[in-house]
């Protein structure tokens, strides 16, 4: 009957919808609390120069740590915080923490050492984004050459005037810009012409089948060569195997980042890791080739 159907309907839909929006509300309020309780921390993943095997910097990656929930990865809270605008305050905290670390590290690591920060589309739409960043740079006396800003390729889709203005301002201040996740669906080579990027980060989806799948390998190497001919530096993301590492090195890719080199680490872990390897990674020749 209609009554039963209605009841079933009610039973089936309402609790679900409720729990969906309730969950979002819950995470939003937990995020607000996380901001005021400083529950965020930064992990750093090394960037390895493929020509010299030297560690030339790292990427700063946010982690949310809470006693009850443990670690919540960024993909579980960054999109929501972009929607509700909390990302602006979170981004401020990230920048503060990263700058404090950059200053500490620049005391004992080399000139060219650099740390990359991820900035979301929502942050870049703020009219005062560059002013606030500049204030933080002054506050910590960070060298502009020691930082780099990563923006995801998807962001450029919306093509907002404010975002474009901010990118141009950043670049005119001498801050290097990376195009993150290059190749994740919406790539347009015209972005490379239109915006002031100096680095292209090849998304890890490209490397998944490299080097065994011929087409994937051809695609990756073509992008590396194309980027180079346009004057961009290339960073390969998600390097998980020695074969991928060797492939990228042979193709002339500039920098590698991925679990094969190291996972993202806390400040303390990163420092210990650097001390242990002396800033250089030794990679023994791969013996797989000789077995073929
Ligand atoms: P992303 O900027 O593309 O960062 C690279 C992601 O790949 C990181 O995930 C990293 O841990 C992961 N990764 C690194 N090497 C490997 C590998 O060899 N294999 C695999 N499978 N994964 C690898 P994570 O830390 O979970 O961050 C996810 C995304 O969240 C980032 O993607 C970035 O878009 C965003 N994000 C992270 N930190 C921040 C932040 O401080 N602010 C903003 N706005 N977004 C952030
Ligand atoms: Mg990134
Ligand atoms: Mg990426
Ligand atoms: Mg990504």
Automatic annotation (TrEMBL):
Residues 24-278 form the EAL domain. This is EAL domain-containing protein.
